[in-house]
Amino acid sequence: MMMLRIAIVLCACIIATPAMPYIKMIKNASGAKPTQPEFCLVTCAGSTGAGTTKWAVHSADKMVTEVDMTECGFIDTPVVTTSLSGSGWHDLQKGTSAPWSITKTGFLLAVLDNGKAPSESLATENKWHVNWIAVGFFCDYKDGDLESKIVTP
Ligand SMILES: *[C@@H]1O[C@H](CO)[C@@H](O)[C@H](O)[C@H]1NC(C)=O
After folding, report:
1. Which pLDDT tens digit goes with each residue over 53-96?
2. Ligand 1 centroid vs 36 CA: distance in angstroms?
3. Residue 20: Cβ within 10 Å count
4. Is 9 helix (H, G, I), strand (E, B) or coil?
5. Could you give the CA distance from residue 26 to residue 75 in angstroms, rounded to a whole number?
6. How far is the CA of 66 from the centre of ligand 1 (A)?
7. Mutation probe of ligand 1 site: the residue of 26, 76, 102 with most atoms within 8 A of C-beta
8. Helical H runs in 44-137?
9. Does the Cβ of 36 fall within 6 Å of ligand 1?
């Protein structure tokens, strides 16, 4: 019985010990040290979807898709990485890891001709889609006042 009590107390102490954050952001999208606390960080990922991605054709060698990150609830511009996936020819496009106009709610990805011109039919046939991972802040904390500083998008 005594041993069990000691075990329970030990367990409670381990759980109550402040842990190192699982996510860190050492520089934000401006290359500056973020001022928001690490416990407000979130990793948010998504995909425009194989077979559901809509492309806007800008010219014979350029197609653009818009990615919506609103549901991530970011309060500041996140750090974003992207990749283009599909079942063919996506590996012969330029710009697949070069997101444009990143804001807290979304970004644009432009796919450019690199030997095989991108087109809506090529993209549809090969189910091209953008996979993305964004790390950013969903809350802020200033002057010891958390309640009034949580920003809900
Ligand atoms: C980055 O951090 C600086 C403060 O260190 C802040 O002024 C800026 O708004 C932050 N966010 C972005 C996206 O630049």
Report:
1. 999 999 999 999 999 999 999 999 999 999 999 999 999 999 99
2. 9
3. 6
4. helix
5. 17
6. 24
7. 76
8. 120-125
9. no
Stretch 2-18: mean pLDDT: 49
- Whether the CB-CB separation of 84 and 127 falls below 8 Å is answered with no
Residue 78: CB within 6 Å of ligand 1?
Answer: no
Structure tokens given for 66: 């818009």
Q: In ligand 1, which atom is closest to the CA atom of 76?
A: 13
On the CB side of 51, CA atoms within 13 Å amount to 0
What's the whole-model pTM score?
Answer: 0.81
Could you give the 3-state DSSP secondary structure of residue 82? strand
* Structure-block tokens of residue 112: 């450019």
